[in-house]
């Protein structure tokens, strides 16, 4: 990676524009003041490509009065995907030289053949964060505007329709230890271009924006112009919709987080939902809560069809759904497991000695100890065991009941309503090949009982 960092460093010149304040500058000043985006002590990095949006952002930041203006630094990335890219970097560099703003740039020399859009974004933000760490900057500022917001909402609607996706682009969020600010979301692209024209500021035009190679471009060129003709107030409507949706999501998230405190338990690599704790919710509301959990904890967006499938399982008996990236939902009695699908437990057995701890599966310490008959977890046997084994359940396992009859272990699991995901991993203890204890559900019932033992399991 060829990198050019700190090429130009100047102190900020407070005399940006000497002419009368522009209407767009006045609006921007009010937006910044109302949202308290910056403090004068903030050191912020402005992402500038040279296009109309980002160049207008930089000009508007420079136009802020001293009590609102942070210390500004600029970063640009030359992706070298178009012949004009180096000229765009020169345009930004020249602007920064003219108005005495520190400038940083780098080049992307190894573009991938697949997934270029995501790779470019990752490279861009990695460079921004490197500059921020190097210069001790606190905030990154980007030029997402109202047209981007509309396109994003339409894309999310087309791809999933998920309630959790409809909050659109937020005006600020955390970025590691720093934060990301987007102060132009109430400005349209046309508004920003008109502003640059009034200020007689040049900006670059990316010719690929006029092609239909991406969904965003197709929406921008074919759909949004039609919507704007149908509704002249579309920009304000989009802003209202997103802001209200974000507020609604905050309220719902707060409620769902309260539910999680009493009904969501970590289990293996996933979570267990205790639905006895949320009986006040309808199955449809429970499904929405599950959608939120997948969205928040697994970054998976569930479709409307999948929500209906979840609701059907919640209304009925046991059931299972498979999702992308090996995630599953499985309902068993009053519990639901959410998370990665579990692998079958290896059929291994461990030989034990009385009072000698064993580390089973490299995780659980298991000890068989002699016990008093009155101990709560004690079980008795007729003969002193010669062979003691610890293992997991097997399909042919049978238990001997107090009346001498036998019962399949699988039937015992059902009687105790032991969830499916717990059955294969529970421990079975045998004395001389006879099951005498099963974790949580069985202790030997055969008479007479001359010796008593208990099982201790710990980390």
What's the SSE blueprint?
Layout: E1 3-8, H1 23-35, E2 43-47, H2 52-63, E3 71-78, H3 85-98, E4 102-107, H4 116-135, E5 139-141, H5 146-159, E6 172-175, E7 178-181, H6 189-198, H7 215-230, H8 234-263, E8 264-267, E9 270-274, H9 283-298, H10 304-315, E10 319-322, E11 327-332, E12 335-340, E13 349-352, E14 358-360, E15 364-370, E16 379-381, E17 388-391, E18 398-400, E19 406-408, H11 409-415, H12 420-423, E20 428-431, E21 434-438, E22 442-443, E23 451-458
Parallel strand pairs: 2-3, 2-5, 3-4, 5-7
Antiparallel strand pairs: 1-4, 6-7, 8-9, 9-12, 10-11, 11-12, 13-17, 14-15, 15-23, 16-23, 17-20, 18-19, 20-21, 21-22
Query: What order do the strands of the largest sheet run in, or round the barrel if closed?
Result: 1-4-3-2-5-7-6
Strand content: 15-25%
Second CATH tier, the architecture of the largest domain: 3-Layer(aba) Sandwich
The average pLDDT is 89
EC number: 6.3.4.19
Keywords: ATP-binding, Cytoplasm, Ligase, Nucleotide-binding, tRNA processing
Family: Belongs to the tRNA(Ile)-lysidine synthase family.
GO biological process, one term: tRNA modification
Kindly summarize this structure in a few lines.
InterPro entries: Lysidine-tRNA-synth_C, Rossmann-like_a/b/a_fold, TilS/TtcA_N, tRNA_Ile_lys_synt, tRNA_Ile_lys_synt_N. With 459 residues, the chain is of the alpha+beta class. The chain has 3 domains: 3-230, Rossmann fold (3-Layer(aba) Sandwich), CATH 3.40.50.620; 246-340, 2-Layer Sandwich (Uridine Diphospho-n-acetylenolpyruvylglucosamine Reductase, domain 3), CATH 3.30.465.60; 349-458, no CATH class.
């Amino acid at each position: 990676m060829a990198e050019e960092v700190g090429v130009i460093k100047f102190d900020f010149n407070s005399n940006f524009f000497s002419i009368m304040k522009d209407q767009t500058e006045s609006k921007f000043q009010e937006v910044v003041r109302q949202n308290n985006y910056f403090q004068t002590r903030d050191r912020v990095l402005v992402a500038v490509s040279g296009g109309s949006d980002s160049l207008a952002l930089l000009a508007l930041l420079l136009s802020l009065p001293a009590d609102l203006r942070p210390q500004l630094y600029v970063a640009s990335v030359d992706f070298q995907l178009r012949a004009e890219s180096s000229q765009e970097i020169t345009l930004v560099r020249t602007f920064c030289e003219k108005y005495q703003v520190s400038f940083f740039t780098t080049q992307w020399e190894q573009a991938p053949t697949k997934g270029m859009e995501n790779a470019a974004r990752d490279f861009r933000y990695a460079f921004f964060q490197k500059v921020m760490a190097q210069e001790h900057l606190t905030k990154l500022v980007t030029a997402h505007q109202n047209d981007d917001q509309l396109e994003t909402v339409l894309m999310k609607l087309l791809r999933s329709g998920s309630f959790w996706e409809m909050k659109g682009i937020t005006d600020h969020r955390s970025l590691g230890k720093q934060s990301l600010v987007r102060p132009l979301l109430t400005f349209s692209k046309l508004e920003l271009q008109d502003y640059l024209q009034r200020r007689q500021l040049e900006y670059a035009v990316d010719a690929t924006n006029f092609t239909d190679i991406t969904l965003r471009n197709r929406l921008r060129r074919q759909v949004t112009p039609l919507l704007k003709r149908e509704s002249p107030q579309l920009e304000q409507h989009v802003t209202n919709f997103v802001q209200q949706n974000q507020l609604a999501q905050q309220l719902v998230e707060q409620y769902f987080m309260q539910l999680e405190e009493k009904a969501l338990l970590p289990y293996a690599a996933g979570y267990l939902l205790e639905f006895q704790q949320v009986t006040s919710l309808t199955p449809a509301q429970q499904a929405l809560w599950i959608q939120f959990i997948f969205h928040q904890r697994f970054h998976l967006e569930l479709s409307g069809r999948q929500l209906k499938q979840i609701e059907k399982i919640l209304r009925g008996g046991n059931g299972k759904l498979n999702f992308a990236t090996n995630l599953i939902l499985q309902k068993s009695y009053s519990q639901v497991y959410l998370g990665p699908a579990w692998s079958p437990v290896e059929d291994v057995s461990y030989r034990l000695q009385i009072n000698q701890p064993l580390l089973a599966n490299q995780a659980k310490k298991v000890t068989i100890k002699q016990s008093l008959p009155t101990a709560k977890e004690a079980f008795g046997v007729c003969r002193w065991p010669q062979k003691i084994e610890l293992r997991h359940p097997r399909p042919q396992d049978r238990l001997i009941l107090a009346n001498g009859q036998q019962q399949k272990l699988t039937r015992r699991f059902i009687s105790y309503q032991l969830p499916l995901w717990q059955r294969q991993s529970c421990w079975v203890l045998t004395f001389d090949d006879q099951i005498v204890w099963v974790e949580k559900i069985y202790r030997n019932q055969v008479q007479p009982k001359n010796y008593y033992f208990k099982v201790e399991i710990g980390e």
